[in-house]
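Dig into these lines:

——
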Amino acid sequence: MLASSPLIQVIPGLMIWTIVCFGIVFFTLKHFAFGRIQAAIDERREKIRSSLDEADNARAEAHQLIEEHRALIAQARNDAEEILAEARKVAASQAQRAKEETEADRQRRLEDTRKQIEAETQKALGQIRTEVAELTLAATAKVTGKVLDSADHKRLIDDALSGLDFSVLEKQA
């Protein structure tokens, strides 16, 4: 049975020449082209593999750097917290010291004021005693109508003063 199209017809001579040409082309390509093509493919494959390895190494290094960065940030935060805690302690200590110094100064001033009041009270009591003594002498001189000597003065002053109660004034001071 013959094929209707000339392209599909089996022609033995053409077939042999086609196989011979194919073999020559295949042999030539195998010796000259396939080796170079395969070498180029292998080289490209190796470049891709090395690029992937480098990318993996870079990714691992980036992760390591990120972890180191996080650790440094955490350390910096810890250091900052320690510095703040120390600053708070110093501030509290200074505030306590200032409070103690203020209290000590207040106590000192209070004691000084108390001493001044006591000294003024003693001075006033002395003045009152002197005035009482003078008034007693004046009253005695008017009542008796005579001038007394120093022994009489002393006795009258002591009697007048012993009769007066200065303890009330001293207790108030």
User: Anything to note?
Assistant: The chain has a mean pLDDT of 86.
